[in-house]
Amino acid sequence: MKDVESESIDAVVSTLVLCSVADVMQVLKEVKRILAVGGKFYFWEHVHERPGSYLHTIQNLMSMFIWPLLFDNCQLNRNIDDMIAKSGFSSLTQNRFYATGTTGLFQLIKPHARGIATK
Q1: How many Å apart are CA 116 and CA 93, to the nearest integer?
Q2: In whole angstroms, how far apart are CA 54 and each of 63, 73, 117?
Q3: Core vs surface per residue 61-82: b (16+ CB within 10 A) or e
Q4: Residue 40: beta bridge partners?
Q5: Could you give the strand order of the β-sheet that contains 35-46, starting from the edge strand earlier in sequence?
Q6: Both ends of the chain: CA-CA distance in Å?
Q7: pLDDT by 10-residue block (mean), the chain, 119 residues
Q8: pTM over 0.90
Q9: pLDDT score of 1
Q10: What are the Cα distances from residue 47, in Å, to 89, 92, 98?
Q11: 37: which strand partners?
């Protein structure tokens, strides 16, 4: 996004992308840089299950060994919703939910977060 002028975009949309980038916080910094004042960041991402659950543990193990190799560096154990909350947007509305229709291995990406962050 370095070729995009600062504060020149009204909206950025991210769907199931932040799990695979090398540096989530750097991407969020760039999103904030290119958004105009009042611009919106719309996101829908799978997230790390909350600690203490079986799924949380399995997500950690799969992220260490095989999942990133199979799914283009996708990391199951990223708290993307927390990262967005800490990235300094002026306002944020988001919620966690469980995706329906996930079967087999894809139950590992059942926890999701979606929301709108405003610059």
Answers
A1: 5
A2: 14, 22, 30
A3: ebbeeebbeebeebbbbbbbbe
A4: 11, 118
A5: 9-15, 35-46, 111-118, 91-98
A6: 17
A7: 92 97 97 98 97 96 94 96 97 96 90 98
A8: yes
A9: 72
A10: 19, 17, 10
A11: none
Unique residue bearing structure tokens 């799969």: 62
For residue 16 the two structure tokens come to: 């199931």
Segments of the chain assigned E as strands: 9-15, 35-46, 91-98, 111-118
Instruction: Name beta bridge partners: 41.
Output: 12, 117
Q: What is the Cα–Cα distance from 26 to 3, expressed in whole angstroms?
A: 15
Q: What is the pLDDT of residue 75?
A: 97
The pLDDT value recorded for residue 65 is 85
Vertex 16: Cα angle to 32 and 51 (nearest 5):
95
Number of H helices, E strands in the chain: 4, 4
DSSP tag of 100: S
DSSP state of 5: P
Q: How far is CA 107 from the centre of its chain?
A: 17
Tell me if 18 sits within 8 A of 43, measured CB to CB. yes
For 105, half-sphere exposure in the C-beta direction (CA atoms, 13 angstrom radius) is 7
